[in-house]
């Protein structure tokens, strides 16, 4: 991967997108890199759409990722990932949790949950990878650590050491949840390595 990173994390409120961006910010700081984060919340925190822009480089001047420039769109929910696909660069990739969580517009009946999302990615030559992060988080008895499973999954794509990831997680999560979060991270990391 190149030395700078443009990334968007998208999901539904309550999934831990903001904690994930905080961990990525800590990674940048641990590696003496400049980082800018920009968070946008949808309607009412829990259940609404949430997006976070993350830019890491030697020098970052704007916190926003421009359409067509994202290296990674990390989707905590497949429909949300699809909504942000236009932000990908030509060589970018969508990494998404395969577990569906109906966003508020679907719950209220304003829109239908789109079918065949992955087929649409393929039709549009969009690179993507999926992982059932919810199932892995559940398997370690920590259903709220889906976000950490996803970070583990993308960790092989980013130029940061395993030790730095663990330090960043330790700096950002409550001490009582650290062990479960490290297990979740390792499950995600191993899932990526097995798929590759």
Strand order of the largest sheet: 2-3-1-4-5-6
Uncertain runs are none
Structural class: alpha/beta
- Share of residues in helices: 25-40%
Overall 3D form: globular
Tally of individual helices: 8
Largest pleated sheet: 6 strands, mixed
Question: What is the CATH homologous superfamily assignment?
Answer: Pyruvate-ferredoxin oxidoreductase, PFOR, domain III
- Calculate the mean pLDDT score and round it: 87
> Which topology does CATH recognise?
Pyruvate-ferredoxin Oxidoreductase, domain 3
- Provide the number of structural domains: 1
Number of strands: 6
Strand content: 15-25%
- For the termini, the CA-CA separation is 16 Å
Order of helices and strands: EHEEEHEHHEHHHH
CATH class: Alpha Beta
* Name given to the CATH architecture: 3-Layer(aba) Sandwich
Fold and architecture overview:
A hairpin with a 7-residue loop joins strand 2 (34-41) and strand 3 (49-57). This protein is an alpha/beta fold and 196 residues long. It has a six-stranded mixed beta sheet with strand order 2-3-1-4-5-6, sandwiched between helices. The longest helix is centred in the C-terminal third of the chain and has 18 residues, at 178-195. Helix 1 packs across helix 7, helix 5 packs across helix 6 and helix 6 packs across helix 8. It is globular and about 40 Å long. It has a single domain, classed as Pyruvate-ferredoxin oxidoreductase, PFOR, domain III (Pyruvate-ferredoxin Oxidoreductase, domain 3, 3-Layer(aba) Sandwich), CATH 3.40.920. The model has no long low-confidence stretch (mean pLDDT 87). It has helices at residues 17-30, 78-83, 104-107, 117-123, 133-139, 146-154, 162-172, 178-195; strands at 5-12, 34-41, 49-57, 70-75, 88-97, 128-131. It contains eight helices and six strands, in the order E-H-E-E-E-H-E-H-H-E-H-H-H-H.
């Amino acid at each position: 991967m190149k030395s700078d990173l443009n990334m968007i994390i998208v999901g539904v409120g309550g999934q831990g997108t903001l904690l994930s961006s905080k961990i990525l910010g800590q990674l940048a700081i641990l590696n003496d890199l400049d980082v800018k984060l920009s968070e946008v919340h949808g309607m009412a925190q829990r259940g609404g759409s949430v997006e976070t822009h993350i830019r890491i480089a030697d020098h970052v001047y704007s916190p926003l990722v421009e359409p067509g420039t994202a290296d990674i769109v990390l989707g905590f929910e497949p429909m949300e990932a699809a909504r942000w696909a236009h932000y990908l660069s030509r060589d970018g990739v969508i990494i998404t949790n395969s577990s569906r969580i109906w966003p508020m517009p679907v719950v209220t009946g304003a829109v239908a949950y789109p079918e065949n999302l992955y087929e649409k990615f393929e039709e549009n030559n969009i690179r993507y990878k999926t992982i059932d992060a919810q199932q892995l988080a559940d398997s370690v008895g920590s259903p709220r650590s889906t976000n950490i499973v996803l970070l583990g999954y993308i960790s092989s794509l980013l130029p940061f050491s395993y030790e730095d990831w663990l330090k960043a997680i330790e700096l950002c999560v409550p001490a009582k949840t650290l062990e479960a979060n490290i297990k979740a991270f390792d499950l995600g990391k191993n899932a990526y390595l097995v798929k590759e």
